[in-house]
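worker-03 picked up job from queue 'complexes'. Input manifest follows; two sequence lines, order preserved.
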Amino acid sequence: MNRKPDYLAHAVLILGVLIFIFPIWVAFSGATQSAGAINRGDLSLIPRLSGLPVFINALGFGNTAKGGVPIWHMMMVSALMALGIALGKIAISSISAFAIAFFRFPFRMVAFWLIFITLMLPVEVRIIPTYSVMSDFHLINTFTGLTMPLIASATATLLFRQVFLAVPDELVEAAKLDGAGPMRFFFDILLPVSGANLAALFVILFVYGWNQYLWPLLVATNGRLDTIVLGIVQMITSDQLTPWNLVMAATILAIVPPVFVVVAMQRWFVAGLTETDK
Amino acid sequence: MERRALFGGRLLPAVLVAPQLAITILFFLLPAWRAFSESVQATDAFGLNTTFVGLANFRALLDSPVYQAALLRTVAFCAAVTVLSMAGGLVLACFANRGIRGQSVYRVLLIWPYAIAPALASVIFVFLLQPQIGLLSNGLARLGIDFNYATNGNDAFGLIVLIAAWKQVSYNFIFYLAGLQSVPASVIEAATLDGARGFYRFRTVIWPLLAPTTFFLLVINTVYAAFDAFALIFALTGGGPGSSTTTLVVKVYRDGVINLDLGGSAAQSVILMALIVVLTTIQFRYTGKRAT
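worker-03 finished. Artifact:
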């Protein structure tokens, strides 16, 4: 079929892309320029090639108002936190969904509804009491405190349950005939057939974990556990003169990992998101 | 829906649900319970004595003009963010679904903002619009427009709406594109043969078929604006200037963590929980997503 290009569609989509990219471009370009020029309001939209090492220098930069913990350390905390949350959530939600879908045990539905309720209790609505529980358990300023409470997830359990319910009964019977016990079945059959869902969930949960702000704000108070998102916000809100080029370099560094995960795994991510949330 | 083929045993399933149940009880139900019990108590200024006060904290809140203003502000914020980001997502999805060249490239270029942390979206917009150094604010100043979110409440409110919508468009785009792709080609062809084209065809044929997606997104975007946008607002303005960007969630934080009004903050938490229960129920009841 040979027809003329759909100019209007291209124009609208390019405009949309530009609206998304423009702020990031300005941040990138700002990172490569001198802090002095930025503070004078002389920001150029063209990145300075000689300023590119800023992305390396920024790794060692720290906020002196909060103990000077360097950016690379914050990135590491964020990575461990995001991985801990994503893998932890996948682990405990998949086994609890397995129990609920494949067994009959007393209080099964009670367990299911208790898990379901967590959908309705985001941290944002119970900030103070959650903090007080955390401090009772001495979990403030610990890595466990930073990750464990975010690991319970009704969404992931619901998704796994849905996927598991769709597994044909014949597969279960066949496994039983071959003498496979429940855990053997879970690891050798159930998880492999849920591969695409696992990948999608990993992307969603990694982004969720990496992008947390309120929770680290409550739990990480002494600097050693600052995540990159929290650390950057604190750099622009402290009273000192903001070294904008370093802060923008850190911001670009901070958005690369989650964006990379989404783009690299977008096929699974898009399919998984529209199925999980809906 | 239930399975027929099952495994036997009682101990194993109990062990398998235990970790999730333990975390749920310790970090979700226990705090929620504390919020309920604190919401009906008052603590004296020294934090020594607590007395049961019934619904007094709730009555005080609902009578307070400050709280009413925050409630109205939250409704306006949610409505503005939802409409803007859904309209943006729908328009982009419609054009991305017209079978043009480079469709998959556009798709990647339009979904990545999903991955940006809300708090960092604010940091990036601060860099653009900070009154002294911002590229855009300086540009506006040259045109004679004085945009200052740090001192002008309306500017601050407009900016949080803009950032929240900017960040959410890609989410709505993903869902609307999936919705459009599931419209059967035969329906479109039939409508076209009947002479329906362009916007008329969209309004009469496609838009009604997108209704379930639209409804689902209305709920999700409202929840996003009401709750998840905390990071974005708090990182940008901390709720100010004055209280011009203090939504309900920001107010819970300010009253509880900064002003240490535990009873009042707990009562606000309980109200927010009620709100989210309503939203979640609507979502599950009307979008065909069944819990059991």
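worker-03 released lock.
Chain A touches chain B through 105 residues (CB under 8 Å).
Residues 39 and 269 of chain A are 40 Å apart (CA to CA).
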